[in-house]
Each structure stands twice: as C-alpha cells, then as structure tokens.
What we know:
Number of domains: 1
Shape: globular
Strand content: under 5%
CATH topology: MetI-like fold
Distance between the termini: 44 Å
CATH class: Mainly Alpha
Largest sheet: none
CATH architecture: Orthogonal Bundle
Number of strands: 0
Radius of gyration: 24 Å
Helix content: over 70%
CATH superfamily: MetI-like
Order of helices and strands: HHHHHHHHHHHHHHH
Structural class: mainly alpha
Amino acid sequence: MNKKKIYPWWFVAIPLILYALFFLLPSILGVFYSFTDWSRMTPKNGLHFVGFQNYAEIFSGKNQYAAGILNTLKFTVISNLVKIIPALFLAILLQEGVRGKNFYRTVFYLPSILPFVVIGLIFTSVLNYSNGILNNTFEFLHMSWAKQKWLSDLHVVWKSIYMVDAWRGIGYVMTIFIAGLNAIPRDYYEAARIDGANFWQRLWYVTLPMMRGAIMINLVFGVTYGLKVFDIIYVLTNGGPGHATEVITTYVYQLYGSGKYGVSTALSTVLLIVTAIVGIFIVKGMSAKNREA
C-alpha cells in the first residue's frame, strides 16, 4: 500500500480515537446509566434496570427539575439577545475608525478572559444588598429608591445574572463580529452610499447578509454556553432564592452530590438531547439562508 496515501489518516485517526475514548464512550455510558437505579447504594443493592423511571421523575412535576429545564432555555435565549445585539453595534462602531478603537476593543474583551468563579465572587460583593458597592453608590447619591436586593429578590435576580453575563461575554462576541466585518469588501459600502443608502439600510442589506457566518458562530457558541451554564449561576445565587434560578447543570450537580447518579445522568442526557436538537436547527437554518443568498 502506498504510504503517501495512508499517511494523512494518522492525523484523523488519533483525534478520533481520543474523541471516542474521552467523549463518545462516557456519553454512551451516561445514557445507559440513566435507565438504571445507579446510586450511592448500588455497591450494596446492585445495579438494576428501571426503564424510563428516572425520566418520569424529572418530568413528573413533583420536583423542580422541569422548571430548571425551562430556566435553562430562558437563560439561553435572553443571554444571547443581551450579548449579540449590543456586541454587533459595538463592533460596527469600533470598525468605523473611532479614535483609540484598539484600546476600547481591549477593554471590552478583557472580561471574557477572566474565570467565571472570579467574576461571580466579584459581583457577589458588588451586588450585596447591605454593603455592596452598587447599593452604597446609590446611597451616596441619595438614590435610595434605586437600591435592590440584586441576588435575593425574585423580580430582580435574573436581571442581575443577565447583566453580569453580558458584562463578561459582550467583548468576546464583539471580537467575532469584528472579524466578520473585516471580511466584508469596502466596495459594497461605497456602492450603497452612492445609491443613497442610510446606516440602517446598509446594516440590513449589506452588513447582516455578509455576516451570516459570524452570526452563526456566535449563535452556536452562545446556545451551547447557555444550555450548559453552571459557574455563574452557582457562584452568584447557588440556584436561589429558593429554586428560582436553578438550571439543568445545577440540578445535575446537586443530584450527583446527593448520590442519585441515575437521575443525574438522566438529566444530563436531557441536556445532551436538547443541545443537539437546538444546535442542528441553528446550523440548518443558517445554512439554508446562506444557500438562498
């Protein structure tokens, strides 16, 4: 056999083996264990197949797991909206020759390289009701009416989470949009200006169609992140107040910690299925639009 023909397969085979060993195999085992009564008591009582019992428990309504799934979906949608739309306009603004644009790009991007745990601890202090910087600032400015229980009020806590998440993520999304803007030929904008197109018309007919690739990348990354969100929720609220901000991953963590491994893996499997379905729809939808263009 010609060695030159088989040589490139080594570059594919090794990553595939590693992918199968460290991702596919654990995923398949996780799906298998989701149909069992695997728990802390398994070494004593043995492992038994229970069918869809774990899934029935998740969606039965007796627990808050279904609410955690809805919270996850809600966070995924809203967190992407509050990051993608402002990031797009920031990218356009910084692409238009603003003085010191490299400095502003760096400032906006820096939060995205900070660990989630560090960000959570910082904002836990900033948003503390009694002695947090934000409420103390309002007090100093004689704006006591603006003080809120940012992390313990049911009507405010999600807004606080979205704010912190946007503060961290907008710079990263903006960077991808800037890369997409740099790939658009300037001749298109010049032709649009000659035709009398205003900013919004250039945005709708030139910028957005030419940036479908960047938008798809941000959507895929954003949806994947949103569905798997854990760190920022856990550090800021630990799922509280009550169970108001619980998401799938926080419930998985709690169930696994309490020894309910079967239900935990079932909930993880639900997350895997939801992530795969949403990801497929996004990629297919954007690919169809690209073909139409």
